[in-house]
Amino acid sequence: MKLYLNGKPAEVEVRLDTLGPKDSIRTDAATHVGRRDDFNPMRETRFQDVRIYRRALAADEVARLPFEDLAAEIVARQPDPRKWTTDAKFVAADRFYLGEKDAETISLASAVAAHDTAFEALTRDGPASLIAIEKTTPAYSDILKRGDYYARLERVEPGVPRFLSNWPAGAPRNRRGLAEWLLSAEQPLMARVSVNRIWQEVFGRGLVESAGDLGVMGDRPSHPELLDWLAVEFRESGWDVKKFYRLLVTSATYRQSASATAAQLAKDPGNKLLGRGPRYRMDGEMLRDSALAAAGLLVEKIGGPSVKPYQPPGIWEEVAMPESNTKTYVPDKGEGLYRRSVYTFWKRASPPASLETFDATSREVVCTRRARTNTPLQAFVTMNDPQWVEAARKLGERALQAGGRMEQRLEFLARATLARPLTPREGAALVKSAEAFRTKYAADPAAAAALLAVGESKPDPALAPAEVAQWTLVASQFLNLDEFLTK
Amino acid sequence: MPPVPPDWLAPLDTLNAAFTRRQFFRRSGTGLGVAALASLLGERALAAGTPAAPPPPWSIAPKAKRAIYISLIGAPSQLDLFDYKPGLANRFKEDLKDYLAREGERLTGMTARQEKFPLAPSIFKFAQHGQSGAWISELLPWTARMADDLCIIRSMKTDAINHEPANQLMYTGTMQNGKPSLGSWLAYGLGSANQDLPAFVVLHAKHTSPFSNVQAISARLWGSAFLPGKHAGVSFRGSGDPVLYLNDAPGIPRELRRSMLDGIEALNRRSYDALGDPEIQTRTQQYEMAFRMQTSLPELADLGREPEATFQLYGEEARVRGTFASSALMARRLVERGVRFVQIFHRGWDQHGTLPRDLAQQCKDVDQACYGLVQDLKQRGLLDDTLVIWGGEFGRTVYCQGTLTETNYGRDHHPRCFSLWLAGAGIKGGTVYGETDDFSYNIVKDPVHIRDLHATILHLMGIDHERLSFKFQGLDQRLTGVLPAKVVTDILA
Fold this sequence. Notes:
By secondary structure, chain A is mainly α. Chain A contains 18 helices and four strands. Chain B is an alpha/beta fold.
């Protein structure tokens, strides 16, 4: 059996061959071309020509077969190329003449590979970025009656809603004009919305709680004058985002203690009046990154293609099309497991399961304010997701290396995860469980070995497995404290 | 430059002065939200210190306390299952091209370029069943046996012609992306009826035919969109841990997990004493709940202790995790434990070609287990207050897609009519509702739009669909939206 691709010999891999030396391929069964059975037809396949010869063809004959012979037949049949069919043009002009005879085309085509290689080198660390330029034909849209694309009412052109401030005089009706409008002093929304969004990120709740709606149907700002002062401050700083974050996190309001008395809680349970410092459970991405950082596993590399951290098998398959190119999730090996969560691959039909448990959205529609739930499913992630167990294991190893005494190790863990020393009573509570861990793993090396096998990174061979197992669980306790999970 | 005065606030003060209806509901919503928010897990915490909240404003007397929705993704052919058209047998291969042109039907890209639209009568035999005499095809022999439990609606209609928008319309109320699912609305509107399980659970059942045309689905169909995230459906997985990372990592025995939680609890208590944040207590409770779920969920997922009779009822495949039969059985176990809404997704119902072979296999996957589920609920006294819904996202065409032979055909998507059945709480069993024309093409009597179905489901579950709303993007958003929707009272018991 020989195969030729465009007249050139192709590599053949024999997957199944039960034909003995004396057997014949003669059979009564029908020969199917392009399909093995009725069930999986090659729907888009077309056959240009099928020929059966009484003798084997020589290699040079086969080389002429796909294009040269066909081109000759086409020309013989119809000498006027203007009357050729699309298929005839493809074979005779594109494939045969341009592909095999025209020197200039051949030399240009041969340069393609080199350009591809160069392009690949340039885009190795991620796709090339697209830039926007305005079309010469202005963009427009039609008003559709009740959204029905058959019922077009009126053509509209770029602009802003009438009730907002006017389009800047002389500004073009395009993105440049929109940018000028957004930044103009007459138009306070851009600054207000931006500072409110940043405030929400830092304090857990915007000055206008409905951060996606600052209109009349949204919530009223809790501190309208502060919102405006911040908006002007931000604008007049030249929209300096970093400076603005600094302004917030160094403010007396932010630096207040989060502790609340019963009276404060009764009066202002949501801390709308900012009588105490912010306190809220961090987003899933921050949590994962914090755990990896505490463990010393976080890879701080910037940029590049998305990565695939741990995820149990079968999650994508439940929802994917059989032919989907994201049907099966294959976790990365090595650094891809430990990158910051912003680099995690996002299949919108099935977002990263552990992040979704912490209210990450599918990213299919804009989300200005993420929900912040508190559920037992989250405890399963931070206690049992291999990402978190491995982080606890590596954090435990670091604690072991921090000193020989239990107090030193606990102290290290407290500083690494809570950024503060432990109180004596806290230490005592942890010593109690740590003793239980020690007794168990000293008596059960198999359990210790099983725990140490979680995650791809290897345990430090210099450390005793029973001790690493013990301190893995102590570290896991720290990673599961409300204080660690909460900002 | 002086600060810009907050003059944009002025209209709000005017608004506040007038006590509008909208404002009234908004305020009521804030006060009464507690009941709805108890859904996933806060219930125990709330129950401890809070006096019983008054019922939410959308509350009406319920017929059903829980529901199971069997979602057949891909769209089962009404012509081969429930919508019997004996008159078509003599019109085999009749070209419907002119008829379709008159109807002005939108055709999908899959058949729009066909030269002929040959009429394909169903090759399956139909017979009348039960007291009601409902016509049901031979593909669903088990379903036929419970004809008198079912209300078969033959006059369902939708606005969408392709799977994704049609599924979103069916399961979220609009074709556009980003709206909460039916189940999450129910969880939001009703709260949870149990303390150890979510209010809304999703099961993914495997289809067995290797040939079936399979559509992708996504969490859109069971997500909570702008409703609080805890109302989203929780997928119980058909393999591995039923809930992600439920089982402790290798090498962590149960007693150590307990010691670990005791240590965490001690430190959390200290944080609470210092800070007074009630979220800390909630977190500790959630960890305890997680610990309990580690026992209760495996018990729930372990079908091994079901008696032999259960497997005779649902079929032997119910022993195999992930099959439709085991999902149906699991659905019963979930509603038994107080889960409000269980949705089973079964894919592969998109028979564009080779329909006789593939539809038969799809039906075989679900038929007996559907019967088993309804009968099981009945014998346990649960059917009186459990609603069961069975259906796809649209119908299929009477004309053939691809080559029509005496024994083989395919059918394209058809939004103008399709069949669906309901059973259980508040439903008039043994009813056949609605009629289509001779081609099962247009509805001639009692159309039921998807919005009507939603209004009816909510009604049965004790919710006024016009009053169940959630404020988002400046609107009081509703499952049934703003277009007309009515409760189909004719099918109610």
